[in-house]
Amino acid sequence: MSLWESEGDYSLSGKGEKGVVSENIHTLTDATFREFVTAAQVPVLVDFWAEWCGPCKMIAPVVEEIAAEYAGKVQVAKLNVDENQKTPADYKVISIPTLIVFKNGQEIERSIGFKTKKEIKAILDKHL
């Protein structure tokens, strides 16, 4: 089952944990977003996406690889913009995929559209 076919828990880890996309990626909602980004002791990369978005599906495996490689150095999360509309509106996310890096709860960098793994790593490496 792929990320886009799963029903509700978005788990690719096979463990079926709510709120976990894979071992290294968390699923955020409007209710959990603020606490997650402010409580993190490391930078947070949030992928704003939607099921119908082709470029979002293209970037998903890249984000998975980044999450695995940066485990312990960066928290990686995904937020579905169709199911959670308040947070994208608050951060003026008007195009997806949008990747936003947060540090100490504040947005420090934003990337819109598909990016290669090398481009995302370059963004993150600036903030470590």
UniProtKB/TrEMBL annotation:
<feature type="active site" description="Nucleophile">
    <location>
        <position position="53"/>
    </location>
</feature>
<keyword id="KW-0676">Redox-active center</keyword>
<dbReference type="InterPro" id="IPR005746">
    <property type="entry name" value="Thioredoxin"/>
</dbReference>
<keyword id="KW-1015">Disulfide bond</keyword>
<feature type="site" description="Contributes to redox potential value">
    <location>
        <position position="55"/>
    </location>
</feature>
<dbReference type="InterPro" id="IPR013766">
    <property type="entry name" value="Thioredoxin_domain"/>
</dbReference>
<dbReference type="InterPro" id="IPR017937">
    <property type="entry name" value="Thioredoxin_CS"/>
</dbReference>
<protein>
    <recommendedName>
        <fullName>Thioredoxin</fullName>
    </recommendedName>
</protein>
<dbReference type="GO" id="GO:0015035">
    <property type="term" value="F:protein-disulfide reductase activity"/>
</dbReference>
<keyword id="KW-0249">Electron transport</keyword>
<dbReference type="GO" id="GO:0045454">
    <property type="term" value="P:cell redox homeostasis"/>
</dbReference>
<feature type="active site" description="Nucleophile">
    <location>
        <position position="56"/>
    </location>
</feature>
<dbReference type="InterPro" id="IPR036249">
    <property type="entry name" value="Thioredoxin-like_sf"/>
</dbReference>
<feature type="disulfide bond" description="Redox-active">
    <location>
        <begin position="53"/>
        <end position="56"/>
    </location>
</feature>
<feature type="site" description="Deprotonates C-terminal active site Cys">
    <location>
        <position position="47"/>
    </location>
</feature>
<feature type="domain" description="Thioredoxin">
    <location>
        <begin position="1"/>
        <end position="128"/>
    </location>
</feature>
<feature type="site" description="Contributes to redox potential value">
    <location>
        <position position="54"/>
    </location>
</feature>
<comment type="similarity">
    <text>Belongs to the thioredoxin family.</text>
</comment>
<keyword id="KW-0813">Transport</keyword>
<dbReference type="GO" id="GO:0005829">
    <property type="term" value="C:cytosol"/>
</dbReference>
<dbReference type="Pfam" id="PF00085">
    <property type="entry name" value="Thioredoxin"/>
</dbReference>
